């Protein structure tokens, strides 16, 4: 009896229990293993998957096909428009290849879960395996048996459960048949943008992880907030499409720091915490499906009257707000498909609080641009910034872009990298852009090539606090 491994957001052969299960099924039933990946352009468009992420996926599907060929497994890359067509094509594929069992990794997003449920209900022999988190969604609960709504107790419980388990990545399965010929390169039939500035492959991701743990993790706490430094791992593009698993990351931490889950002084503590944030947002997505449906986590957010000024939104998207730190960050996103975490928080706060644009507009724009686009982390980050989320930044805390600028890019080297118009400006002018008084005939613009601030900070802060007080209970 034959089995099928269906790859989705787990584009790897290492630490892939679903792949191992497919191989074991075929071995014990004297059958073959096949593998399949569906290219779904219309679904990706509906989900706003960025062209740069599609290109990154394409590169990894080709590398995956090569790695599978070495194991004697053929990967078919099938084009479907959307998840509905996937159902039809998968049923036909199963019949054509006499497949008795299908294995895949569980996914936390609602459309993906509905697709899988429909397939199982229609009789497809699909087994879903939890492998996108170290601890599966639903395993980290409070005393009442509910999902935590605050991160710190979630993280504490997460560590105590993880500490009782062996966190060991699953090995690459042994070859199941003779090595196959090198597969032909597959080209996805949809719009893509080059991701070549990023290395690709499981080996590359593992090397980045190892080098980060060997050389940088101890300085992560001190350096992670400074966008001019390479202070973070830059593993997010790989984690988002499953080229590396969070279990591989946590296991690598534990190999180096066996006390990481219990010792508060562990040098990897802060980085481990970020991986736990990733799990927190994924567990939330499963516990609260409305998060996948564009809803505020905090329902009081439904009462916010957003300004949603299109011209201001466009200036934000284009990196033309007149606030150098915001503009440098948005240009980094537009040019590279990635943005530093500190800046994601700063630009999201600016859009939702200074400009009072609905967080959903920003979430969507990020998704359309990010190489690491991930519904759980993106939604979590946006709702955290807007104050509507679970364990969010309080609505009355409004990042001051000028303070953020001087604190986290003191010599403006990051800003100047992306906003070259400002190369001759003084540090004081870069960090404190001036709003021209329109009533002053003698007022001079700082520089004609660069816009003046589109909103005045003090006024915007007070306006945000008033409008967002809709989030106040009682
Ligand atoms: P590191 O600092 O090295 O962290 C290691 C890993 O931990 C990351 O790769 C990521 O998988 C995870 N992680 C780190 N911080 C967070 C966090 N706050 N929430 C969830 N997971 C985290 N991350 C995405 O992967 N995809 C997104 O679409 C995304 N959108 C975001 C939107 C906003 C508004 C904000 C504030 C944050 C968003 N993040 C997102 C989280 C974070 O900014 C990125 O994960 C991080 O910048 C990636 O860089 P890194 O790999 O160097 O991270």
TrEMBL record:
Catalytic activity: cyclobutadipyrimidine (in DNA) = 2 pyrimidine residues (in DNA)
Molecular function GO terms recorded: deoxyribodipyrimidine photo-lyase activity; DNA binding; FAD binding
Record-marked site positions (Electron transfer via tryptophanyl radical): 306, 359, 382
Cofactor binding note: Binds 1 FAD per subunit.
First-tier enzyme category under EC: lyase
UniProt: FAD binding residues: 220, 232-236, 271, 274-281, 372-374
Transmembrane segments: none
EC assignment: 4.1.99.3
Keywords: Chromophore, FAD, Flavoprotein, Lyase
Pfam families: DNA_photolyase (PF00875), FAD_binding_7 (PF03441)
Cofactor: FAD; (6R)-5,10-methylene-5,6,7,8-tetrahydrofolate
A biological process term (GO) from this entry: photoreactive repair
Record-annotated Photolyase/cryptochrome alpha/beta domain positions: 1-134
Keyword Lyase carried by entry: yes
Superkingdom to which the source organism belongs: Bacteria
Annotated function: Involved in repair of UV radiation-induced DNA damage. Catalyzes the light-dependent monomerization (300-600 nm) of cyclobutyl pyrimidine dimers (in cis-syn configuration), which are formed between adjacent bases on the same DNA strand upon exposure to ultraviolet radiation.
Protein family: Belongs to the DNA photolyase family.
PANTHER family according to UniProt: CRYPTOCHROME, CRYPTOCHROME CIRCADIAN CLOCK 5 ISOFORM X1
Record-given protein name: Deoxyribodipyrimidine photo-lyase
């Amino acid at each position: 009896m034959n089995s099928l491994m269906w790859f989705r957001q787990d584009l790897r052969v290492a630490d892939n229990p679903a792949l191992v299960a497919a191989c074991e099924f075929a071995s014990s039933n004297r059958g073959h293993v096949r593998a399949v990946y569906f290219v779904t352009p219309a679904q990706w468009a509906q989900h706003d998957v960025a062209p740069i992420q599609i290109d990154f996926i394409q590169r990894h599907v080709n590398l995956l096909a090569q790695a599978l060929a070495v194991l004697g497994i053929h990967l078919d890359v099938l084009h479907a428009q959307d998840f509905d067509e996937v159902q039809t094509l998968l049923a036909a594929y199963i019949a054509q290849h006499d497949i008795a069992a299908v294995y895949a990794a569980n996914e936390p997003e609602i459309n993906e879960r509905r697709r899988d449920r429909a397939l199982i209900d229609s009789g497809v022999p699909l087994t879903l395996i939890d492998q996108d988190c170290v601890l599966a969604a639903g395993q980290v609960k409070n005393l009442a048996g509910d999902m935590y709504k605050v991160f710190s107790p979630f993280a504490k419980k997460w560590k105590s459960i993880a500490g009782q388990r062996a966190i060991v990545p699953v090995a690459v399965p042994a070859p199941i048949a003779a090595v196959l010929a090198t597969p032909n390169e597959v080209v996805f039939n949809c719009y893509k943008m080059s991701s070549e500035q990023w290395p690709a492959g499981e080996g590359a991701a593992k090397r980045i992880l190892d080098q980060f743990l060997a050389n940088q993790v101890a300085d992560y706490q001190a350096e992670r907030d400074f966008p001019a430094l390479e202070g973070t791992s830059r593993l997010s593009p790989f984690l988002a499409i499953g080229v590396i698993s969070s279990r591989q990351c946590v296991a690598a931490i534990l190999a180096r720091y066996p006390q990481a889950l219990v010792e508060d002084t562990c040098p990897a503590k802060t980085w481990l915490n970020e991986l736990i944030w990733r799990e927190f947002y994924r567990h939330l997505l499963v516990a609260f499906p409305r998060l996948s449906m564009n809803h505020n986590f905090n329902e009081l957010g439904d009462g916010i009257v957003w300004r949603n000024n299109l011209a201001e939104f466009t200036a934000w998207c284009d990196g033309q707000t007149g606030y150098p730190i915001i503009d440098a960050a948005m240009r980094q996103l537009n040019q590279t498909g990635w943005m530093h975490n500190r800046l994601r928080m700063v630009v999201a706060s600016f859009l939702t609080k200074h400009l009072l644009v609905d967080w959903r507009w920003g979430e969507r724009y990020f998704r359309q641009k990010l190489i690491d686009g991930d519904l759980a982390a993106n939604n979590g980050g946006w709702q955290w910034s807007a104050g509507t989320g679970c364990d969010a930044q309080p609505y009355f805390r409004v990042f001051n872009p000028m303070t953020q600028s001087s604190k986290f890019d003191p010599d403006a080297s990051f800003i100047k990298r992306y906003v070259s118009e400002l190369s001759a400006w003084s540090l004081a002018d870069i960090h404190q852009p001036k709003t021209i008084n329109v009533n002053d005939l003698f007022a001079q613009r700082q520089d004609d090539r660069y816009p003046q601030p589109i909103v005045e900070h003090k006024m915007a802060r007070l306006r945000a606090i008033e409008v967002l007080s809709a989030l106040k209970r009682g």
